[in-house]
């Protein structure tokens, strides 16, 4: 059986109601992520928490040292679980994530978190490029509505627009319940 790691990406306070960069359905996504976390712990899978920090004090969210940059209570790390801090969308960039996974002889990663259109996307593509099998628990991920060129795109459409191409060539994209089976 291949070694698996659960990677929880940026499930941080600023993305929740009342935070500085609220995402659509983040509370529901984190509830699914918490179920995945419970299962990973029960199976003794490697668990890696990714925390995005922005050292610029004028950043709109995830400012270093702020409560908004802290990991949300729904998925708090336990002693011994890795917590990696990143400053870019790709969880591998400027962190020791690849080394950590390789040292643990991980073959497959399960991803969840936020934002679907940024950090989940970038991390999934990098993980696949590094040769890991990638599964995304898509209902344990959240997106934010965007506007571009005068076109408004809902969070649901953004999420679908990113999950679809990931499913075509980078990852198995499924509901958390399927991962838990």
Short recap of the structure:
The chain has about 180 residues and is of the alpha/beta class.
Structural overview:
The protein has helices spanning 26-42, 97-103, 116-129, 155-169, 176-180; strands at 4-9, 46-52, 82-86, 108-114, 133-142, 146-148, 151-153, 172-174. With 181 residues, it is α/β, with parallel strands linked by helices. It has a single domain (4-180), classed as Rossmann fold, CATH 3.40.50.850. The strands form two sheets. A six-stranded parallel sheet has the order 3-2-1-4-5-8.
Structural class of the secondary elements?
alpha/beta
Please state the average pLDDT score.
97
Strand order of the largest sheet: 3-2-1-4-5-8
CATH homologous superfamily assignment: Isochorismatase-like
Element-level helix/strand string: EHEEHEHEEEHEH
End-to-end distance: 15 Å
How many structural domains are formed by the residues? 1
Give the number of helices: 5
Low-confidence stretches: none
Q: Which CATH class is shown? A: Alpha Beta
* Shape annotation: globular
Largest sheet: 6 strands, parallel
Provide the helix percentage: 25-40%
Number of strands: 8
Radius of gyration: 15 Å
So, CATH architecture?
3-Layer(aba) Sandwich
Question: Might you state the CATH topology name?
Answer: Rossmann fold
Strand fraction: 15-25%
